[in-house]
Amino acid sequence: MNELKYEFYIAGTQAQVWDALVSPGQVQQIYYGSVIRSSFNPGELLEYVGPGAEGDETVHVYGTLLEFIPEKVLSFTHKVGPSYLKDRENYESRISWRLEPEGACTRLTLIHDNWHPDDPAYAASDSAWWHILSNTKTLVETGRTLDFGSWE
């Protein structure tokens, strides 16, 4: 499968965009009520937890933190949470966020790669990333997110 790669230019500093990616309050707005949980130490668990099929503590995505350079790089392995499996194998992929200055803006690059050819999460991820990235850009630039309706 091809990597999913997106570049967005955001009218905000690297610090502002970084906060949108890791600050629980901002992540919660972008990811429909889910928060990011992690020690942010490479090699340790990173997970997105929030309202879902298993209640308020549903694990939507989890993985191992690979790289963490504040305001520059956030990279981790990606597996879908148990409630999404429905008797299928849970394949692992990789998500990498990269932030770079671009004039008075920040270029945010997301690469979701290392896909297993049979991973059914690929199509859902390709669709969902547009919402997540648009929400990230809008939150940094305006202080609010877009209204896409329900996540599910």
From TrEMBL:
<feature type="domain" description="Activator of Hsp90 ATPase homologue 1/2-like C-terminal">
    <location>
        <begin position="14"/>
        <end position="135"/>
    </location>
</feature>
<dbReference type="InterPro" id="IPR013538">
    <property type="entry name" value="ASHA1/2-like_C"/>
</dbReference>
<dbReference type="Pfam" id="PF08327">
    <property type="entry name" value="AHSA1"/>
</dbReference>
<protein>
    <submittedName>
        <fullName>Polyketide cyclase</fullName>
    </submittedName>
</protein>
<dbReference type="InterPro" id="IPR023393">
    <property type="entry name" value="START-like_dom_sf"/>
</dbReference>
<comment type="similarity">
    <text>Belongs to the AHA1 family.</text>
</comment>
